[in-house]
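Priority: low. Protein: CubicO group peptidase, beta-lactamase class C family. Input follows.
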Amino acid sequence: MSKIVVDVDPAEVGMDAKRLERVSSHFQRYVDDGRLPGFSVLVSRGNKVVFADARGMADIASNHPMELDTIVRIYSMTKPITSVAAMILFERGLFELTDPVYKFIPSFKDVKVFQRGSSQSPALVPAQEPMRIWHLLTHTAGLTYGFHYAHPVDQMYRSAGFEWGAPEGFDLAQCCDAWAGLPLLFEPGSEWNYSVATDVLGRVVEVVAGKSLEEFFQEEILVPLGMSDTGFFVNSGDRDRVASLYTKSPYDGALLRIGSMAEVPTETPRYLSGGGGLLSTLYDYHRFTQMLLNRGELDGFRVLGSRSVDYMTMNHLPGDQDLETFGRPIFAESSYKGVGFGLGFAVVRDVAASKTFASMGEYSWGGAASTAFWVDPKEELTVVFLTQLIPSSTYPIRTQLAQLVYQSLVD
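Result:
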């Protein structure tokens, strides 16, 4: 039975119930015409669940429905959790944001920067600026992802076995050493590029805390927040609660179930990816967003100090620039215009420039399988949307979700 309870009439918190139903009816069309297998969504305001619904299928072949407690791969929605973990240690004075990464991972001591050439014959120069902790938190470290297909270094990542995951048998420490041996796209701090930076940050957490990322998550975040269905693996008894992963056929647009990439571990994996390794549920991630909305506290347990959350969710890009001007032109689920980046979150800086409904200071992120969340402190609003369609840039789900949620506000 789902733990989610809609506990307030939308009218009591300035929302229109009939308008909220548009969220479901709109994305039901995505299910009906085969664009999505299924989805679940939760909207809260003022720490009250206002709306929750699940539609479609978790697995099409077996006719297994999407439920409010279905477990999904949240991929990069792992990143904010890892960022919070790092800031817990920062609050304890165990490192500085300006500390060089090599202080904790020595292989990052003498990194090289790609200057020109190809993936087979690159011209490299020594980095002038050390990679620092704040570079990892803001994706300005010069690292990349193999799946970008935008730069010769992306190809070098793929050639080394890093496209969607890690080479067989690698643990997080080995991955970090491998990435340190590959060139950076640019001098740390000079540009923004979405990357394995949060995985490296996860390794920093392990080194500083003296325990695995899994243990730290459990002790400091997941157990205190009651996120009992979130982890790097699922118990064998919960395997049938996990949604299947799909992609769009390049031939006819039909949904294709993905096999090997979608395997779900039933025990702790060797590679603990702080950038994309967690599975979770609608309820659990809602708990995480409520902690953030409350500036670090939930149900009497404080994960972070209030000023820490404020600091994480301000724009940290130099000169208050947005991702459009400071970032690399890679695929995106929504416009980078008017959106900056904090310590683990995208942050809205200019609502008009973003060309969709939002609030100044709203912060968010999403996952590769089209999952998304945002927290809007101004409106005391949080939204979590889960599905399992990869890549997340297939349809404009996130912008449409914002339109549909914000139009339901009537106060």
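The radius of gyration is 20 Å. The chain is about 25% helix and 15% strand.
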